[in-house]
Amino acid sequence: MTEQLLVRVDQSHQATIHWLVWSxxxxxxxxxxxxxxxEQLSSLAEKAQTRPVILLLPATAVQLRTLELxxxxxxxxxxxxxxxxxxxxxxxxxxxxxxxxxxxxxxxTHTIDVAICDSSWLQSWFSAFDDAGISVNKxxxxxxxxxxxxxxxxxxxxxxxxxxxxxxxxxxxxxxxxVNEYLTIAGVKQLAxxxxxxxxxxxxxxxxxxxxYDLPLAIFAKSLSNIDFNxxxxxxxxxxxxxxxxxxxxxGLIAASVAVVSFIAIKGTQLYVxxxxxxxxxxxxxxxxxxxxxxxxxRPHLLKKQIxxxxxxxxxxxxxxxxxxxxxxxxxxxxxDAFAPETLRYDKRRNELRIxxxxxxxxxxxxxxxxxxxxxxxxxxGALNNDGDFVVGEIRIRGAA
Length: 401
What we know:
By secondary structure, the chain is α+β, with helices and mostly antiparallel strands. Helices cover about 30% and strands about 30% of the residues. Strands 3-2-1-4-8 form a five-stranded mixed β-sheet, covered by helices on one side. The longest helix has about 35 residues, at about 245-280. Belongs to the GSP L family.
């Protein structure tokens, strides 16, 4: 993507939200503005449809720390992180979300960068964007996106705050009213500022980056390519965004897929029914096979294949015998519920299959007869009798003699 949508939020959902559309190819601002709170996020939905969305969170809400490790970073140490941090945080560790940054080395000690924030608060912002129809691709602390100066702290003014980046994994924020106190506590001596600076202590050496003065979000956008960290990980990992062509054609493709699957299902119904009925009625199928082909050896584990071979052999002849009649009969199970055969008898001389069956209603026998006749089979229905909650009757299926 050559354009990105950056959205910077604050601690409160009612605070001002800054947004900016940035062209990475042209390195310039396409559009920018402010919202009066999260309720207006939906106004950015159209801009977010074709652009990656970068959510910038206030650095005051995300703590960045570098932890020393007893060994090289591994999966077991990741599971132990909550216990390693528990004594160093003021709130319940279970209420915090811990995001993993880069592993590194400090002298001879292994380290890992982590970012910590309130889990419920972070979820509330992701939910607000979801409710507005906006998919957030990346989430970062705002000050982390400042340009990095190895010997100086970087700073930019955003609203009534100054944002600071002291090194690659140390950031801070100070209100205008106590910015000098913050810098004193942080031990800052040199400051590279990307906004006009005044009222700073004379003890601070200021270096104006006038050639890079710009809107804070534009300055952040220029540095995004140098930052591979993302708060959208673990249980907050971003869902893979569907491509535009899929969103445009999804309904048509799904309908076409359903049609194709239905067509294949209809064509494969006969084989499907025969296979499953053979599994469910194996004993009866073996007996019927032996009756129809007394001189052939029955192998129960290969019975389905034997039946299929006989059907294939008979498919081109005029008379199908027992297997042809059985083939017609089992096909009705795809369309008729509550119809269960009790006995099946085959008269080879008359090429007739007699089925004594049980159903819930008289009409079921009529439906079976109608379906078989539609398949070109001669059907005779015998007497029907009530047997408690069921109806018992006989159907005769006759092929060519």
